[in-house]
Design goal:
This protein is mainly β. About 5% of the residues lie in helices and about 40% in strands. The longest helix has 6 residues. The chain is globular. The two termini are about 25 Å apart.
Length: about 120
């Protein structure tokens, strides 16, 4: 909580601050959904400064082990902003932007964020 994250889509926001992770008490990991406040935004973007938004963590500096024994770790913490049309199911959350920049881990497939994987340039 309170961590400033980079936004890696073209929704108009540049940086967001995590208000709450929607799963667990220890914070968010790869693929988790968070509630965030927009701290920096582009003037003509879809999202304005001060707005409360939902986001999916697509890159985390904390390493995560994979099933094959390898570990994945990124240089920064980054999110993709998603809408919240249906609060009951997280599978209905679609990305606000139309492009996702940088690498995205394939662990998002297990968390049912297939639209983010389809928009990503590179899957790590």
């Amino acid at each position: 909580m309170g961590k400033v994250l980079k936004v890696v889509d073209n929704s108009g926001a540049k940086k967001v601050m995590c208000i709450q992770a929607l799963k667990g008490k220890k914070g968010a990991r790869l693929g988790d959904t968070i509630v965030a406040s927009v701290k920096e935004a582009m003037p003509n973007g879809k999202v304005k400064k001060g707005a409360v938004v939902y986001g999916v963590v697509v890159r985390a500096a904390m390493q995560r082990g994979r099933v094959d024994g390898s570990e994945v770790r990124f240089d920064d913490n980054a999110v993709v902003l998603v809408d919240n049309k249906d609060k009951k199911t997280k599978t209905d959350r679609q990305p606000i932007g139309t492009r996702v920049f940088g690498p995205v881990p394939h662990e998002l497939r297990k968390k049912k964020h297939l639209k983010i994987l389809a928009l990503a340039q590179h899957i790590a």
